[in-house]
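We modelled the chain as a single entity of 446 amino acids. Its sequence is:
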Amino acid sequence: MSKPKLSQLISALAVTLLIGSPATAQDINLCEGLVTHNQPVVVPQMSKPPLLQFYLDPAFGSRTIRISNSQPGEINKPPYSTMQAWNADESLLLLYRQGNSGSGHYLLDGHTYRPRKKLNISPADLEEVFWSHSDPNTLFYVSRSKGNQGKFYRHNVARNKSKLIKNFSRFCPGKPTSGNGVHMQSLDDDLFGFRCRGKSKKQYKMFTYRISTDETNIADIGEGTQWRAWTAPIPAPSGKRIYFQGTTLDLSLNSITHKHDMAKHGEHSNTGLTHDGQDAIFQVVFDPSPGGCNGDRYKGVGHLTEFNLETGKCRPIINEADGYPYPTSGTHISAQAYHRPGWVAMSSIGYPKQFKYLTNNQPATPLFSEIYLVNTDPENEVLCRLAHHRTHGKKAKSGLYKGYFGEPHVTISPSGTRLIFGSDWYDSGAVDSYVIELPAYRPPGS
């Protein structure tokens, strides 16, 4: 691997000074002072909060703020729960906008949440915008624009200009994407994973690309192979292994290191670090693990289960043994707090029968319509309940947009001290973004 540039070292130092080192971060209990019981609670009815005015969630008391002002039919939301929304030092925040005021990716001030600029990028998919983990001024994307399709770029957000890294079209005639279920690159911003169609409609390839060595590893997927064609290889945070369709692969993509004990590998999940810094994928599990998930009473079924990519072990974290219900539908996971290894943010909806709890003033099933945070350290496991998002998501009928965009897709910040989520707020006809600031959050100058 090439040596890091001086600018990268300076950026990394700035991040450490602002957010704190991982060792220091682990000493902070992000749930301290927050609601941690698992009892049913009423979802208090409330009007959509005013723009850029903080409010305390009426059920759980978390400090929350609406940061966008979508017009009817518009959406302003974080790209996806598996992707970073804040940049490395949390000075900038990325939202995706769709609507009359201009679709695309927009930057906000990462602390005041005031609008900054529209980004001059055209990524392969709205979710496939990769913030650097160390340089606050850099993001990566594969272009889909005419004449540049298949080209991999580094984008300077200050100058709003892109620089070509690699042209994938030579071996990837179809549009390269990060597949159905995008995840971040390795923490050193060096290893990325993609898939694309080959020379015919029945041919597909998966490949990884390492920037520092200009190295590409390619393998066939789809018809005639053991792999389905619709996902891309996912670099583990360490960059030392690959997660792909329920397995851990070596970097060549040719050898299976672990076949994980999961009935389905397509459930909502996110790669991240365990509490002690190991590579893992955190997943909601609806179907029992074939091998029983290391003797778990519920065979791994639960809102959150950890699959260790290094050891191959399955470990339940949130399930019925803890007094929580069978997994709530519409549950998403964000494990991108890389300065707080082991802390995972989650959002659950509860389609559609539970929607009655939004208006009937009766105690709702725990985790229905909730944003919550989990410490996955087995010695200090805790779940704190933060806010009700009140969205209808895919069941919305009032908006002139796909209901999918109304799903919360909660996304945690690198420091773990803030969470962002989207909501259509009782099917209001528009989707806005909301930020929860935890007590551990310290804005600049405080």
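As a brief sanity check on the tokenised model: The longest strand covers residues 92-98. Residues 6-19 form the longest helix (14 residues).
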